[in-house]
Please model this.
Amino acid sequence: MDLNMLWYLVPSVIMFVAGVYGFVTRKNMIALLISLELMLNSADLNFVIFNRFLYPGSMEGMVFTLFAIAIAAAETAIAIAIIVNIYRKLHSTEIDEVDKMKY
Amino acid sequence: MGYSQFGAMIPELIILGIFLVVFVADVFSRDGSAKKFLTPMTTVLFGLGTIAIWLLPSCEVSVFGGMYVNDTASMAIKAILNIGVFIVLLQSAHWVESDEVAIRKGEFYELLLVTLFGMYLMISARHFLLFVIGLEAASLPLAALVAFNKKHYESNEAAIKYILTAVFSSAILLMGLSFVYAFSGSLYYSDIYANITSGKMSGLLIVAMAFMIAGIGFKLSLVPFHLWTADVYQGAPTAITSYLSVISKGATAFAFFIIFVQAFGQIYPDCWEWMLYAVIIATITVGNLFAIRQKNLKRFMAFSSISQAGYIMLGAMTSSTMGLGSMMYYIFVYIVSNLGAFAVITSIENKTGKVSMDDYDGLHKTNPWLSFAMTLAMFSLAGIPPFAGFFSKFLIFTSATSTGSMPLYILVLIALINTIISLYYYLLVVKAIWINPGEAKVEAFKSNAGERAALWICVAGIVLFGLVPYIYEYCYNAALIPGPGQ
Model:
């Protein structure tokens, strides 16, 4: 069987869509963060796939991915810290409870 | 390739140097009394840095294989943003000394400087890796700053809303970028410009462009992506709100312009133009209509800043040097007008804790000077002739119609109608201050030195920027350099 680019791109797109779906439907803030991680990772995966199959002569996509992973880790760290703060105030991590400010 | 290349990044090095001094001073002075010097030290250092950046000879520098370019336009926008940050430092000087925050004021300054550093990188980036790093370095510390009042629940709620939408938008931006990479094989703006031509138009490229507009539009709070703005502005500490509304917006708007002139200039007529067209109309209109019904002044300023972002992006419609020049001028004027309004809001909130528009009834009886400054700021934001806001709106409309195409005239007409709508809600504040009957709800007080200095700078800017042609000439001359595809 010939493994072409499509075999890698389809899972990546499924990950992205699953991430968006999870971000819209999930109620728990940690689950929202996991959905965001899925989206970021699918973008990283895309970079690696395109680099490997379309431009094998260079490393630009892979280097970009390394930086993107580091950035994603920083984002998660800050978001978790804020969620901990909210948990101390509300004793809950449900996103529905964070609705004091509206419209 | 040597370390000498870092020496070319002078504005970044200045900010980094100030950051390191503040950081070391903060870490090595743990006892409470010794930290008294931190606020004046940071303000003075930053003021000196601002002057240094203004006085630097503008020469075009390109290092790291062209990833980082410092041309005259980038230098000019950095100098403009620096003035804005200096005003923010002045008006927050009193707030950071309050009991709740004083112990952490070092962190406040450090995070603020790191954010500015990220914005500098974003402005100077000519490669998408550097752009993404700059964007994240600008938006992640801001989330921590939004949560700075951690004992107040609203601050945390604003922060979680900000970080979740910021990460969501970065993910969408990265996804769009990965498709752009698939099309061009490189992430240099110049390579993308050469490789992505209108002959390559396809559905996937349009999706990639839409993803990129969405990702950057989140940071700029353009309309379909603006929902976080009002909540974050309301919940964040007022100093951070003013920072978010002008500095972060100005830097992103400039970077946006550079990206789509220098990287996607060739496909601009095919897909960017109508996307931007629709987004600008929606931004100006929705921002204005929602601003009318706001009672909380910070939310009010949030929606006003959304519609102002639409006006800023009008400068990007023609993607000419005149467009860039008037955009930079608009950002400059917007910085002084908006920070003027925020300086009044901050000083009243610090003294009394009141941010509702009803509390401003009859303010002129007790605080005539604050009322006067607020009125000038509102007139300037609305664009009433003798003040700077009129000239910036005039120039940005002129640049948008300079090509003479019919759709752009219609766009400017819609923007003009919206200016009239905006006059209504800006004047609501003025009416509350001068005309509404009843006793004044805010007692007379003397705002402290930092806030007063910030107000004086802003008022001087509002009055003088429109009348002194040097400012516009400065912006326009600085904008001459980055042509398409450079």
